[in-house]
């Protein structure tokens, strides 16, 4: 039989764990918030992580299945990054109930390109998956022997087919997911005299 002290100690232990988890998630979110404006630095770190992963695969000569799965996942993320949030191919009735859509005629109002996967979430997913893939290379159960040139050829074929389909979609619906140069506005230094 439990007495009152056991119930309160169990409740306080759960409260302590909950508070600890909340604090860790707040610190994690704070770090993400600090990294948000530093796009080039974020991607440099991700590319460095990816290069470290590739170097480990090259030196250990294994874990090709992990590398292939990571490549397919990154390809899916990239396609989601290039795709508009509201696909014009799925907009049959022309309603604007789903929010802004891509302009299909030059007479329509300009609407900015809204991605299905925003850049920050793309970076975060690439970074997390690369870290998970790197740690998977320390587990021998994932080192399945395969003939890796077949995986490379299959990945290249899949990449070419997928990108061809995506480029055809971009041409058909006339959108470009990248902005080359945003207009920058200067501050006008005008001295207005009041009479």
From TrEMBL:
It holds the Pfam family Rer1. It is a multi-pass membrane protein. One of its GO terms (cellular component) is endoplasmic reticulum. Keywords: Membrane, Transmembrane, Transmembrane helix. It comes from Euphydryas editha. It is found in: Membrane. Involved in the retrieval of endoplasmic reticulum membrane proteins from the early Golgi compartment. GO terms for biological process: protein retention in ER lumen; retrograde vesicle-mediated transport, Golgi to endoplasmic reticulum. The chain crosses the membrane at residues 43-59, 65-83, 146-163. This is Protein RER1. Its main location: membrane. Belongs to the RER1 family.
């Amino acid at each position: 039989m439990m007495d009152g002290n056991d119930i309160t100690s169990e409740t306080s232990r759960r409260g302590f764990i909950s508070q600890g988890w909340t604090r860790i998630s707040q610190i994690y979110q704070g770090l993400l918030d600090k990294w948000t404006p530093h796009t080039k630095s974020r991607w440099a770190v991700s590319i460095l992580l990816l290069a470290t992963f590739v170097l480990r695969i090259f030196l250990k000569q294994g874990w090709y299945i992990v590398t292939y799965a990571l490549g397919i996942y990154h390809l899916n993320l990239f396609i989601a990054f290039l795709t508009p949030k509201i696909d014009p191919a799925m907009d049959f009735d022309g309603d604007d109930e789903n929010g802004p859509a891509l302009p299909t005629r030059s007479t329509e109002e300009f609407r900015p390109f809204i991605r299905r996967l925003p850049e920050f979430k793309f970076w975060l997913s690439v970074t997390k998956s690369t870290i998970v893939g790197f740690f998977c290379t320390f587990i021998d159960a994932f080192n399945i022997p395969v003939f890796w040139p077949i995986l490379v050829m299959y990945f290249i074929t899949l990449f070419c087919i997928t990108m061809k389909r995506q480029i055809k979609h971009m041409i058909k619906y006339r959108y470009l997911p990248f902005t080359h140069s945003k207009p920058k506005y200067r501050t006008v230094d005008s001295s207005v005299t009041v009479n």
